[in-house]
Write a structure and sequence with these properties.
Layout lengths: L6 E7 L11 E6 L4 E2 L2 E2 L3 E6 L5 E4 L2 E3 L2 H16 L14 E5 H6 L13 H5 L4 H32 L5
Parallel strand pairs: 1-5
Antiparallel strand pairs: 1-2, 3-4, 5-8, 6-7
Amino acid sequence: MVGGDVVEVMAALPGQLFLNTQIPVCLWFLTNDKIQRCHDRRGKILFVDAHQMGTMEIRVNRVPADEDIVKIGGIVQVWRDNSETEHTYKDVSVFCYTATLEEIEKKSFVLTLKHYVDTADQEEDDGPFDQKMKCLTTLLKQKQAEGVRLNGLIEANLKRLRYEF
């Protein structure tokens, strides 16, 4: 499908959009006509990262906000048209990127979003796992020591008020 140039847009949506599954969703927009309104999109695919959009309605269900839907639809529409108007398409860091078929071929035709758009997950990945675990275990020890200290204060205050603990 990539070689046949029918993939137009790949939009990565968040997980928990459906009650029966937690996995994220990826929408594939397919077309046989990548030429519209004098704009030639042949050999290009738009990647949209919307995996962090929406809000949790209940603990297991994420609902996209109207603004999120408008933002995604708007960027796709501008990318499709991209005429010389005030709404000319531009790649937006951590949101959307237009990849050429040459770029995609260099990446072995892998259409995973993280290969093309700087995802927020990559930004949060601030170091090697061992380093993160050392920091987290040090923080845990500090919090446990603080908990022991606070429990001692609570017990002392209860005894002063003549309540045994």
